[in-house]
Design brief:
Number of strands: 0
Helix content: 55-70%
Structural class: mainly alpha
Strand content: under 5%
Number of helices: 7
Radius of gyration: 19 Å
Order of helices and strands: HHHHHHH
Oligomer: single chain
């Protein structure tokens, strides 16, 4: 078996973990802002009304808690995959339960944000948190995007 050619990584390849980390941070922050608006009336309040959702009201209060807690966890990069999975499911539920009944397409039914969050968080479930995440520190690495030292030292063609 021929050994792979060692080609230096392109600058865009080296930047991937950091861009993914920034994507995670910004998306988590925006998501947490939605939860804070609904729970505490911040940033214009629930749905821009200035108010809050009633405590324990199904599904709005639970969605707001998922948005706030999930957004903060995702932004910090702590328990990113489980938080992103729960947040993605929450937004898929919001899209199909709240928006889909009024029209087929997100542009027509006002569900663009729900659809985009659902897909963005599903992406994080599969890609992981990227760099600048607490998940990476928990695993003993400086960044989640950095390659594992033992895996990098293993010869080509061996199990890692």
């Amino acid at each position: 078996m021929a050994s792979p050619t060692l080609v230096p990584a392109l600058p865009v390849e080296r930047a991937k973990p950091y861009v993914l980390g920034l994507f995670r941070i910004v998306t988590g922050f925006l998501f947490a802002c939605h939860g804070a608006a609904s729970l505490f009336g911040w940033f214009g309040g629930a749905a821009g009304t200035g108010g809050t959702v009633a405590t324990g009201a199904w599904p709005n209060w639970y969605a707001a808690v998922i948005q706030l807690v999930g957004g903060v966890l995702i932004m910090a990069g702590f328990l990113t995959r489980p938080a992103a999975f729960l947040s993605s499911g929450s937004m898929a539920y919001a899209y199909f339960d709240v928006h889909q009944s009024s029209a087929l397409l997100p542009l027509q039914n006002g569900g663009e944000a729900s659809a985009m969050y659902a897909w963005a968080f599903l992406l994080l479930v599969f890609t992981g948190p990227g760099a600048l995440a607490l998940d990476g520190l928990r695993r003993g690495r400086a960044t989640a995007g950095a390659p594992n030292a033992t895996a990098a030292a293993a010869p080509a063609g061996t199990a890692r």
